[in-house]
Amino acid sequence: MVLKFYYDFISQPCRSLYILLKLTNTPFQAYPVNLLKGEQLSEDFKEKCSKFQKVPVIHDGNFRLTESVSILRYLAREYSIDDHWYPKESKEQARIDEFLEWQHLNLRLNCLTFFRTTWILPLKTGVHPTEEKVSGDKKALLKSLTDFDQLFLGDGLFIHGNQISYSDIHAACEIEQPKFGGYDPREDYPRIKSWLDNVEKACNPYYAEAHEFLNKVAKEIEDT
Amino acid sequence: MVLKFYYDFISQPCRSLYILLKLTNTPFQAYPVNLLKGEQLSEDFKEKCSKFQKVPVIHDGNFRLTESVSILRYLAREYSIDDHWYPKESKEQARIDEFLEWQHLNLRLNCLTFFRTTWILPLKTGVHPTEEKVSGDKKALLKSLTDFDQLFLGDGLFIHGNQISYSDIHAACEIEQPKFGGYDPREDYPRIKSWLDNVEKACNPYYAEAHEFLNKVAKEIEDT
Questions:
Q1: B16, B24, B224: which is closest to B107 by C-alpha?
Q2: Low-confidence residues in chain B, pLDDT < 70
Q3: What Pfam families does the record tag this protein with (chains A, B) (predicted)?
């Protein structure tokens, strides 16, 4: 039975898992879920897809799983995923785990908060945030970007050296988000810019495909 | 070379890893770090212990690792940890991973924010939070507790059935925190109360030992 993947490209962990699935030639059926329309909040979704009422979700036969990092780890055990994406060697795996655990309350929290404040909420409600709110959220975002730059980017092409791993896809999809709210980290962080270019190049055409929706909406907003 | 463990009992992930290390009879040398005094912020700590400048940290020979969840996974691979704490079976492991990934931006974020607002900041600065701030933080905390209760607690004694796992220790150490700031989830959530009793019983005497410092400071504050 083929793996079922429920996703919305507006969601960073959905984009990163989608890119991984495509790059690793993992067979799957894609089921789009419209988060802006609240499809995940229906009783039907809760019963038939996931009690967590969010995406990404996978169904592997009768087994349902949420949380992108736990899905990645499950896929690495159960499917044919090249080792460099999530190495089996214990210390190398621990380095990736360290990043994937660190990012939740740092990059993830602060990129998402800024993205929500400056992009999602105005799109959904038509109400724009106060300058004070944007400025506070941006300050926290810059702290996380500086920490990411200093703690995780070194001399290699990617986070963990010269081979790409899931950490890179996960982090890049996160760091792409603030630009839709008016701040592109490439402007202030040359090392992040160069690393993002490497990740994009290594992940295309799927990187472009996963970000197409966001780019399209951003352009529509710019044109109005 | 024996495992080195850097910790402060004021930190939830330090308490939960300490309890795991003791319950699994993993040999380690304990190195206390005083977070309230800012010992982790020194250049000496940064150079000799961890560039992340926080705890918990382990040194396994020359290998340094932060982030409690990545440390747990590393210990489960490298040390003799009974399988029920973090099962090798793929789907069982995925269920624990799902909880451990979920908790970061839910239980962890909201218990910690409430604990910081109501306990750590007044302790460090002498300044008490506004009622509005406490009320906002409590609302987010209650949402996380309700989600935890409904999504993760079932008919079993523990989160993943009738056997205790690392999820239980990690979650319990988190849910103990708000009471030091004046709100004990046991009051409103009978299922959480009953589950906490089970975890405490299964983890004593180390559960009591890890919470002794917090209980002592809480009593001192109460008595003044």
A1: B16
A2: 221-222, 224
A3: GST_C (PF00043), GST_N (PF02798)
The pLDDT assigned to B214 comes to 86
A97 touches chain B (CB under 8 A): yes
- What is the model's pLDDT at position A223? 76
Q: Where are the domains of chain A?
A: 3-81, 90-223
Q: What is the ipTM of this complex?
A: 0.96
**A90-223: CATH topology:** Glutathione S-transferase Yfyf (Class Pi); Chain A, domain 2 (1.20.1050)
Q: Give me the sign of the Cα torsion angle A181, A152, A156, B43.
A: positive
Low-confidence residues in chain A, pLDDT < 70? 221-222, 224
Find the radius of gyration of the CA atoms of chain A.
17
Pick among 3.40.50.410, 3.60.20.10, 2.40.380.10, 3.40.30.10: CATH of A3-81: 3.40.30.10
The pLDDT value recorded for residue B216 is: 87
Contact B163, B85 (CB under 8 A): no
pLDDT of amino acid B197 = 98
Predicted confidence at residue B218, as pLDDT, reads 74
Kindly list the distances between the CA atom of residue B107 and the CA atoms of A160, B147, B178, in Å, as whole numbers in the listed order.
29, 9, 11
Alpha helices, DSSP H, located in chain A: 12-23, 43-48, 68-78, 90-102, 107-115, 121-125, 131-152, 166-175, 190-203, 206-223
Are B70 and A94 a contacting pair, CB within 8 Å? yes
Contacts for A102 with CB less than 8 Å, ≥ 6 apart: A151, B52, B66, B67
Which chain B positions have a beta carbon within 8 Å of A108's beta carbon? 104-105
A154: left (phi over 0), alpha (psi -120 to 50) or beta: beta
Q: Residue B152: its chain A contacts at CB < 8 A?
A: none
Nearest to B78 among A63, A65, A90 (CB): A90
Q: Taking a C-beta distance cutoff of 8 angstroms, is the pair B28, B57 a contact?
A: no
